[in-house]
Design brief:
Structural class of chain B: alpha+beta
Number of helices of chain B: 2
CATH superfamily of chain A: tRNA-splicing ligase RtcB
Shape of chain B: globular
Number of domains of chain A: 1
Oligomer: heterodimer
Number of strands of chain B: 8
CATH superfamily of chain B: Archease domain
CATH topology of chain B: Archease, Possible Chaperone, Chain: A, domain 1
Number of strands of chain A: 19
CATH class of chain B: Alpha Beta
Strand content of chain A: 15-25%
Order of helices and strands of chain B: EEHEHEEEEE
Radius of gyration of chain B: 14 Å
Strand content of chain B: 35-45%
CATH class of chain A: Alpha Beta
Number of helices of chain A: 16
Helix content of chain B: 10-25%
Largest sheet of chain A: 8 strands, mixed
Number of domains of chain B: 1
Largest interface: A-B, 47 and 39 residues
Shape of chain A: globular
Helix content of chain A: 25-40%
Distance between the termini of chain A: 38 Å
CATH architecture of chain A: Alpha-Beta Complex
């Protein structure tokens, strides 16, 4: 695209003259290589976002960006509620509060290797994965309504959490503005059976190793409880399951009906939106918070089950195994945040869809444990390439509303990946390379082949190039469960 | 006329298909079948459970969207998947469309049904119904 120009290292801009009705420019965070390989849909979608009412500064896309619904995956945008700023389900994603949790241990690869198959098989047996699975936490709908308002706090009250788990979760695992009355019965019907399910597709639970050569900032790594020496960490990725999807669908439909009333043209149905301060906007914000809390609770109970599984296999308490949650952070939400705009502090509604918050040291919203370090950022790669831990920076606050990438980003369709890869063969090859994957579906496994994703190392290089986050450590996978 | 065809040119992180039908009723049936095929091997489904639902919409597009949404809802709410769909009492009128959708299937058994993906939503991305020679074609992208 000839209109796109580099404005600083790792940041490219499409001017607001590119498309009629653009209110701000669009900015893409990428290396030259990643930019060249981005699909055209990204540019179309991010420039559509730039047309939304009340948008401030620019519409952003992260280096792992690819075609999504409404916003591109990797999309970030902030809106001023006092200037007709909107809230848009497409800017959050169907899987509300899809996110990552990282746990450190005092185990090493030598401790785990002899029992790896047992461990993975046990996790697979105890944590439901895949379509149509019932969660291992049995609730009725009345109790589920409490879960979606309390999030991780419900887990603490019901024996699925320790206080320190909540302390190391974004917003202590509870978006307090949640209101279960804003959620449809259909969403409740879909969600109440799903607490304690990992899901499928690109959702996973992975056992990873920290090798000495993969520690990039020793002081920060140590502050986070990462010591290298083939230390074992656990990472998992999942969200609000069918519940979040129904909330998003319900409100997208509702917004499309009221957009004419608010004088907002429908450029793309997936960019359905409503003024944040409208009744519809506020209702959705409360419902979105319910879905976010469901995801926090889901990840919390899964973590609880992981602790039990490790304890079963290694014959020690989770405490003796040094199991500690480093952080749980979302990559699909909208939140009210204070940011500086042309030197003036403003309250904005910041949308991150396939993008991780990346707050710097001493940010007032950060947990006490991260005041000196900055916020941990967990970026998941494909099951073959491994993942990264980074940290938030001041540059992120200046350039991207305190946001960074969330993963590798797909580069090939699921359908195409299944044509090129045989899942059973891939499983064998991965095991030969030292990664034991337990999956139900070989077809699903083929879809998740590493070749279907962008190179995570290049994505991380790109975020460092623009300074919006900084590498701390990389993790090598040795075991994985997938739906 | 084939019933459906999966696409790889769009929605790389999810699932997309064209569904076909000689009329709207067949289009709805084949779209629901394609959606189910995105999740399980529909040939392995037996008919142990039946569901009868009245679906409504302001347009044929909305009617089809709502029919597919019902299939997804039942998969999560009741763990049911269906291999057979039949439309009865189809009404297509301006701002007033409806159909009685009969669904035959069973409780999802991921081993028996070779479950391979979990469809979570129908999206509006590239969503349309087009008139083609011999009938209609629906373009559908699913969030997986």
């Amino acid at each position: 695209m000839k209109e796109i120009q580099q404005i600083s290292p790792g940041i490219y801009e499409i001017p607001k003259t590119y498309k009629k009705d653009m209110l701000v420019p669009a900015r893409i965070f990428a290396s030259p290589e990643l930019l060249a390989s981005m699909d055209e849909g990204v540019f179309d979608q991010v420039t559509n976002v730039a047309c939304l009412p009340g948008i401030v500064e620019a519409a952003y896309c992260m280096p792992d960006g690819h075609w999504g619904y409404g916003f591109p995956i990797g999309g970030v945008a902030a809106f001023d509620p006092k200037n007709e700023g909107v809230i848009s389900p497409g800017g959050i994603g169907f899987d509300i509060n899809c996110g990552m949790r990282l746990i450190t241990t005092n185990l090493t690869e030598d401790d785990v290797a002899p029992r790896l198959h047992d461990l993975i098989n046990h996790l697979y047996a105890r944590i439901p994965v895949g379509a149509g699975q019932h969660g291992f936490v049995r609730l009725d709908k009345k109790e589920f309504r409490k879960v979606i308002e309390k999030g991780s706090r419900w887990c603490l009250e019901n024996g699925y959490a320790e206080e320190e788990d909540l302390e190391m979760t974004e917003d202590n695992g509870q978006f307090k503005w949640a209101d279960a009355n804003m959620v449809s019965d259909r969403a409740i019907d879909r969600g109440y059976n799903q607490i304690g399910t990992l899901g499928s597709g690109n959702h996973y639970l992975e056992i990873q190793v920290v090798r000495d050569e993969n520690i990039f900032d020793k002081a920060l790594a140590n502050a986070f409880g990462i010591f290298g020496q083939n230390q074992i960490v656990i990472m998992f990725h999942c969200g609000s399951r069918g519940f979040g999807h129904q909330v998003a669908t319900d409100y997208l439909r509702r917004f499309l009906d009221v957009m004419p009333k608010h004088g907002i043209p429908i450029r793309d149905k997936e960019l359905g939106c409503a003024p944040f301060n409208s009744q519809e906007g506020q209702d959705y914000f409360s419902a979105m918070a319910c879905a976010a809390n469901m995801a926090f609770a889901n990840r919390q109970v899964i973590y609880h089950r992981i602790r039990e599984c490790f304890s079963d296999i290694f014959g020690k308490t989770p405490k003796d195994l040094g199991m500690k949650q480093l952080y749980d952070i979302s990559h699909n939400t909208a939140k009210i945040e204070k940011h500086k705009v042309k030197g003036k502090e403003m309250e904005l509604i910041v949308h991150r869809k396939g993008s991780t918050r990346a707050f710097p040291p001493f940010h007032p919203k950060l947990e006490e444990a991260f005041q000196e370090t900055g916020q941990p950022v967990i970026i998941g790669g494909s099951m073959e390439t491994g993942s990264y831990l980074l940290v938030g920076t001041d540059e992120a606050m200046k350039k991207s509303w305190g946001s960074t990438a969330h993963g590798s980003g797909r580069s090939m369709s699921r359908h195409q990946a299944k044509k090129l890869v045989r899942g059973d063969k891939l499983q064998r090859e991965m095991e030969e390379r030292g990664i034991y994957v337990k999956t139900f579906s070989y077809s699903g496994l083929a879809e998740e082949a590493g070749m279907a994703y962008k190179d995570i190392h290049k994505v991380v290089e790109a975020v460092e190039l623009s300074g919006i986050s900084k590498k701390v450590a990389a993790f090598v996978p040795i075991g994985n469960i997938k739906g | 006329m084939k019933k459906y065809q999966f696409r790889s040119d769009i929605a790389i992180s999810d699932s997309a298909f064209y569904a076909y039908g000689k009329d709207y009723a067949e289009l709805i049936e084949n779209s629901c079948l394609a959606l189910t095929e995105a999740m399980v091997d529909t040939k392995k489904l037996e008919t142990q459970n039946s569901k009868l639902e009245t679906i409504k919409g302001k347009t044929p597009e909305e009617l089809l969207f709502n029919a597919m949404e019902e299939v997804i809802y039942l998969k999560d709410a009741e763990q049911l998947v269906f291999g057979e769909f039949r439309c009865k009492n189809l009404v297509i009128r301006p701002s007033d469309c409806s159909v009685t959708l009969m669904m035959e299937g069973e409780k999802i058994d991921r081993k028996k049904h070779n479950a391979h993906a979990d469809v979570k939503a129908v999206t509006y991305l590239d969503y349309k119904i087009e008139k083609i020679r011999g009938g209609y074609r629906a373009s559908v992208v699913l969030d997986v």
